[in-house]
Amino acid sequence: MRMRIKEMEDMRELERKAEELQSRAEVAEEEETEEERKLRMRKELEKVAKEQAELRDSAKLMFEVGQKAYGKGSYGRAIEFFEGALTIIPRPTLFGGEIQIWLAMAYEANNRHADCITLYRQLENKHPSLSIRRQAAELRYILQAPKLKISQEEMVTIPLIGSSYDSYAATWSDKDKDKSPVTNQLPSSKDYLADFLVWRPPVGFEKSGAFWATITLWLCLVGAAFLLQ
């Protein structure tokens, strides 16, 4: 009985403290001015926006790591990173649709064909982005396209070049062996310009009076030119 009474008293004490805290909060809200309320709301919104940006950066990093893992052939790891990114990025967004396209390709590469087709159908039917729906439909069509079977008669055969060509080439080369090579040699042209520029004095010039008269006149003109300077 005493234990029961003690529990009831404790419950009443807790209720009283809760009422006091609530009344204090109400008084604080009443005393808060309009400017303070706006400032508090802005800080809260900035905090939420910062957290969302950090989450988006984390999702983008996981998406990029998943792409690298896919390129290296680690399809299981790529699936983990893509699915982790989708826990942050909403699926109906454009970025979410892009991640799902890569996830479907990783499913197919990891031998999860049914999961791949299911995801493509979901994107094709429900995603808000037209480009994502179109891309998913095209990829699904490629995977589900019927395989063409070509019979032996329909195959194109390329004939091999056999010994007939080799014998023809050998015969042609034998004919050419007997022929001596013909070289076209142009006759060397005479250097008339050099012969013209080389001065050859006439024979017996030392006995010619006209020659010495010309030399004397030239020397007189040169001497007069020096004197005039």
From TrEMBL:
InterPro entries the record matches: TPR-like_helical_dom_sf, TPR_rpt
Domain of life: Eukaryota
Residue ranges of the TM segments: 209-228
PROSITE patterns: TPR
UniProt-annotated stretches for the region Disordered: 15-38
The keyword Kinase belongs to this UniProt entry's keyword annotation: no
TPR repeats: 59-92
Name by which UniProt lists this protein: Uncharacterized protein
Source organism (scientific name): Kalanchoe fedtschenkoi
